[in-house]
Design brief:
One of its GO terms (biological process) is tRNA threonylcarbamoyladenosine modification. It is found in: Cytoplasm. It contains ten helices and ten strands. With 329 residues, the chain is α/β, with parallel strands linked by helices. The strands form two sheets. It has a five-stranded mixed β-sheet, with helices on both faces. Strands 8-7-6-9-10 form a five-stranded mixed β-sheet, with helices on both faces. The protein binds adenosine-5'-triphosphate and fe (iii) ion. Fe (iii) ion binds next to helix 4.
Length: 329
């Protein structure tokens, strides 16, 4: 079995995965959303402190598997340095005391492999990764051959939901909150401009849209519950329309055989619906990770670790590093 640890942002999670069957033997996550909600976003030092409390608690529950472990896996990039450090420190201590090899896992590969938890891989596949820190399109031919073909030039899709929520003091994380308000709102009340509409390039941008929402909030001054719902719905419609416009370009140029969306924001119902109809039109098979595996979790890190174990991709305890950002896979 492999024990995997995830602490790249505000979720403390540990999983144990069986190497032969790929089955999850244990999986637990303690989310810090409530503690960060009052600040409208993740406070890194608070997050690190909460990991220090939560990770050992979860680890205790896994002690019965210790003598069956063959490796320790941990997210080492990308993420917040102070929170990544907590997971990596625990992983190093475990690898040393249990005399096991260490596997350093890329969190974004983790999001991709959330599609394959307890399953075989599917390749080739084109993936839209929408999370708190990333908005990317990745063309994956195999584990070894993954290429980022489009990315955001400024903010991410998920982060724009967080900021719009924060602007109206609705709480954190903004994605589910804005989505919920949108259900009662009029998506046509405000005409926010679709970002990069005229540009032929396949790339994303969310800072302009965020700004347009901010200006509208300032203009309205006092917001009624209906105003809030209408802003959320109009914003969500535009944020998704931007992604869909770019994806339509991509599908037109080269329709993928398989397509998937992953990352915390892939839980968005509006986005999922739009993608379903696009894929149907092009006869593309659409893969979605289970809702419980969309946001950060150690099960997806364990699934990547199975692959790295198979390839003997280990990192030495002395050399494991932490990277807050990554440029390529
Ligand atoms: P990254 O994976 O890029 O390092 P992260 O790990 O912080 O960032 P995730 O946990 O994958 O991000 O996703 C969290 C993000 O997903 C938050 O920005 C949150 O608002 C967003 N999100 C969650 N649910 C929804 C939803 N239904 N609609 C839109 N956004 C959502
Ligand atoms: Fe993530």
């Amino acid at each position: 079995m492999i024990l995997s640890i995830e602490s790249s942002c505000d979720d403390s999670s540990i999983a144990v995965t069986d190497i032969k069957t790929k089955k999850l033997i244990f999986h637990k996550k303690i989310s810090q959303e409530l503690q960060h909600s009052q600040y409208g976003g993740v406070v890194p030092e608070l997050a690190a402190r909460l990991h220090v409390e939560a990770l050992p608690k979860i680890l205790e529950e896994t002690s019965e598997y210790f003598d069956k472990l063959k490796a320790i896996a941990v997210t080492n990039s990308p993420g917040l340095s102070v929170t990544l450090m907590e997971g990596v420190t625990m992983a190093k201590a475990l690898a040393t005391s249990l005399e096991l090899p260490l596997i350093a896992v890329n969190h974004l590969k983790g999001h991709i492999y959330s599609l394959f938890i307890e399953e075989e891989e599917i390749f080739p596949i084109t993936i839209l990764l929408v999370s708190g820190g990333h908005t990317q399109i990745i063309e994956a031919n195999s584990y070894e051959d993954m290429k980022i073909v489009a990315t955001t030039i400024d903010d991410s899709f998920g982060e724009s939901f967080d900021k719009v929520s924060k602007m109206m003091n609705l709480g954190y994380p903004g994605g589910p909150i804005v989505q919920e308000y949108s259900l009662k709102g009029d998506e046509n009340r405000f005409d926010f401009p679709i970002p990069l509409r005229q540009s032929p390039k396949i790339e994303f941008s969310y800072s302009g849209l965020k700004n347009a929402v901010r200006l509208k909030i300032e203009e309205l001054n006092e917001l009624s519950t209906q105003d809030i719902a209408d802003i959320c719905a109009s914003f969500q419609k535009t944020a998704v329309a931007h992604i869909m416009q770019k994806l339509k370009k991509l599908f037109k140029q080269n329709p993928p055989k398989n397509f998937a969306i992953v990352g915390g924001a892939s839980a968005n119902i509006y986005l999922r619906k739009e993608l379903e109809s696009l894929c149907k039109k092009y006869n593309t098979s659409l893969y979605l990770s289970q809702l419980k595996y969309c946001s950060d979790n150690a099960a997806m890190i364990g699934r990547v670790a199975l692959k790295q174990y198979e390839k003997q991709e280990f990192t030495s305890i002395e050399n494991i590093d932490i990277q807050t950002r990554i440029k390529a896979f």
